[in-house]
Amino acid sequence: MSNPFIPIETAKIDWQENTPYSLVYKDFYFPRANALSEVRDVFIEANDLIHRWLKLQSASHKQFCIGETGFGTALNFLTTWHSWLQYAPEEAVLYYYSCEKHPLSIIDLKKCLAQWPEFESLSAELISQYPLLTPGFHYLSFSEGRVKLILMLGEADSCFRQLLVSGDLKLDTQLKCARFDAWYFDGFDPEKNESMWSVDLFKVIALLSRPACTFATWSTESRVKDNLLNCGFIINKQKKQDAKSDMLSGELLAARYSGGRRSTPWQFSTKKEVAIRKAIIIGAGLAGAMTANALVRRGWKVTVLERAAHPAQGASGNSQAILYPQLSAFKSPLTDFMLMAYLYALRFYKQLPAIEKFADLKGIIQLAYSDKERKLQSSLKKWLERYPEMAVPIDAKEASQKAGIVLEQGGLFIPETGWIDLPELCRFLLEHSEINVQTETCVSQIYYENGCWLVNGQRAEVLVIANGAEASQFEQTSWLPLKRIKGQMTWIDESLESRTLTRPLCGDGHVLPARDGLHALGATFELSFTHDQADEQGSELNLDRLSTLAANVNWQKEVRAQWAGVRAAAPDYLPVAGPVPDAHAFLQRFAGLADDSKRWIAASGAYLHGLYLCSGFGSRGLTSVPVCAEWLAGLINNEPGFLNRETIRSLSAGRFLIKRIVFGKK
Q1: Above pLDDT 70, what percent of the chain?
Q2: Which of the listed residues 181, 244, 295, 605 has the most CB atoms within 10 Å of its CB?
Q3: CATH code at position 434
Q4: What is the per-residue pLDDT across 419-458, written as a single tens digit (0 to 9) for each?
Q5: Quick one: where is this thing mainly located (predicted)?
Q6: What does each C-alpha distance from 48 to 60, 212, 213, 216, 337 come to in angstroms?
Q7: Residue 657 backbone phi and psi in degrees, to 5
Q8: Among candidates 91, 65, 211, 221, which has minimal Cα distance to 148?
Q9: 328 within a domain of the structure (yes/no)
């Protein structure tokens, strides 16, 4: 992996008379006077948003999607959010996509937001969720799910291009995959920030826009008008309410161009409306519980089928599972996804009520226990200098102070992480009046009949397979190359020396602070095993690894309890989340990629209607399940989505069939 992560550069601001001034673009972020009224005038009124939102009351789809080309100080977003809560139906959801190349630091953002006391409560909610400013997409939910912000950090053109299904005008139009109802074209003066107003960007924007999608902008420069006209927009020039200056507004007549290089959209599944919002989920572990919870929050009824006597009895049965990131200084599909998933997971768990009852999230210590680990941590130096909130390098003395015991080596202190009791978490997620958990229910076959999936005599238009390592047991999924990996935990008594341990130590294995007098040790990683039960050999391995974690501590060595679970993992160690391909039809449809993997094929993927997967999370389920379950529930619910195209491909089960076509391997 030679492609390094490039940190996002925050905005360089000079505060002049309490107004932020960009030192890069030599311009103010907003007018010194009447900034709020100008936002309402230029963007809310010119897009006729209030009238359109009121009409959602009688609409079948109560969703509205806005795109913004510059997030800036968040004033446009806050004003829109505030108006949405006033005028949109309570059950309607606003999706607000905004990109920003140079986002404000949290300090500058707070200073900006303090100027608008009418948004005090909304500002507080935004600040509490304002993400670590890493490159890529950040998904935030506000006002109990009524407003969704997809904050995309990077160049506008590349960010919005990643929302295209294929980039082909004819196919994307045919697939009806446009999502935007209105646009805010906002950025610094075109003379100083040309890329934000380019014809290439407007081509992508037109392709992403629904018929009659509107736009508004304060800029009236001729190049902006020409670029918009060239891309299929109708333009109206009008006076602002102060009558002192002009603005532009208009709507899309029809997109005219493809969005640059086309990409065969094998990851895209055509959607079919469901008559009854009811789903069946196979598996009551972490993946099943989170998906069920995400669906009922959207108004669905869910039946969860679990073969064991209680939820979370398989790989999700660990009562002290560790939440930790997969840190890397280099970009890859895996590291891109794991960074995004980890940051989302931190926000997700922090917002859970009563999380402290079944979790301890005070941070972990990742020890530099080997030459390989020391080299990895050394490669993170520049990345962590930019993002100290992610992890902080510490020496042996600092590590000992944070751990509460004497350690021989330092490493990284990773804040906000720790351990979570998985069975308790699953029970919490499943405690809902619209979730029906049926235990001791084995599922051996599934059938599709008359538009519904039949499972043990029950039927629903939507079926989610979330039973971990057993996800490939069905005829429809038998081709999945999931690996079974056994992981064993061991519990020992605390000793006088070990009872002072305050944080999890991670290295070659891990040891946790004592809970009810017992330390948890783990976990093994067994690719080859003859049975899935806990055994003496696994506990011996866990005990032996204590010497690499804290050799100076006198540990008790008598095993008090042990547990094992079998995880599911894909060969590339990325999860599998999304629709299930019709393998035979999929292989036929994209057979042409065997000669050229980048060949353009004007077709969407071949997928089984209403059948979905949520599996393959390996040993990092606590990190990766929350974002996958949320995205999958949104996909099932026909929402516009918050993952970029490459991430959707990385998670799709179709990737295994594409690899079979390209590389000729089953």
Answers
A1: 98
A2: 295
A3: 3.50.50.60
A4: 999 999 999 999 999 999 999 999 999 999 999 999 999 9
A5: cytoplasm
A6: 20, 12, 11, 10, 37
A7: -70, -35
A8: 65
A9: no
Question: SS3 string of 157-189?
Answer: HHHHHCCCCCCCHHHHHHHCCCCEEEEEECCCC
The closest of 312, 313, 292 to 301, measured between CA atoms, is: 292
Query: How many domains does the structure of the chain reveal?
Result: 3
Residue 313's beta-bridge partner residues?
A: none
Antiparallel, parallel or unpaired: β 180-185 and 209-217: parallel
Phi and psi at residue 474, in whole multiples of 5°?
A: -90, 155
Q: Could you write out the DSSP letters of every residue in 240-308?
A: -TTSSSEEEEEEES---S--SS----TT-------SS-EEEEE--SHHHHHHHHHHHTTT-EEEEE-SS
From 201, 217, 252, the end of a domain falls on: 252
Give the type of residue at 4. Answer: P
Tokens, residue 119: 């948004």
Q: Quote the Cα angle for 370-374-377, to 5°.
A: 140
Cβ-contact 133, 61 below 8 angstroms: no
User: Among 335, 616, 282, 637, which Cα is nearest to 469's?
Assistant: 616
**Considering the domain boundaries, does residue 64 fall inside one?**
yes
372 and 478 share one domain: no
- Asked if residue 419 lies in contact with residue 358, where contact means CB atoms within 8 angstroms, the answer is no
Residue 75 has a CB neighbour count (10 Å cut-off) of: 22
Residue 303 sits in the same domain as residue 165? no
Amino acid at 87: Y
Nearest Cα residue to 636 out of 377, 208, 301, 304: 301
Tokens 């890493």 belong to which residue? 134
Complete DSSP assignment for 322-343:
EE-----SB--HHHHHHHHHHH
> Where do the DSSP E strands lie in 110-226?
136-142, 147-153, 180-185, 209-217
Residue 48 and residue 507: Cα distance in Å, rounded? 57
Among 142, 148, 111, smallest CA distance to 128 is for: 142
Q: How far is CA 534 from CA 517, 530, 531, in A?
A: 21, 11, 9
Residues 85-115 pLDDT 10s:
999 999 999 999 999 999 999 999 999 999 9
Cβ-proximal residues to 648 (8 Å cutoff; 6+ apart), any chain: 267, 578, 641
Contact 479, 661 (CB under 8 A): no
Largest CA distance in the chain: 82
Q: Name residue, tokens 């968040």.
A: 74
Tokens in use for 466?
């979330």
Q: Are 52 and 58 in contact (CB under 8 A)?
A: no
Angle of helix 422-430 relative to helix 286-296, nearest 10 degrees, comes to 30
CA distance 360 to 542: 22
| Domain of residue 373, CATH code | 3.30.9.10
Torsion region of 245: left, alpha or beta (phi above 0 gives left; psi -120 to 50 gives alpha): beta
CATH number of domain containing 42: 3.40.50.150
What are the pLDDT digits (tens) for 615-652? Answer: 999 999 999 999 999 999 999 999 999 999 999 999 99
Long-range (24+ apart) CB contacts under 8 A made by 587-594 are 587/657, 587/660, 587/661, 589/266, 590/264, 590/266, 590/657, 590/658, 590/661, 591/661, 593/264, 593/658, 593/661, 593/662, 594/661, 594/662, 594/664
Please indicate, yes or no, whether residues 106 and 212 belong to a single structural domain of this protein. yes
Contacts (Cβ under 8 Å, ≥6 apart) of 257 = 169, 203, 206, 207, 231
Residue type for position 636: I
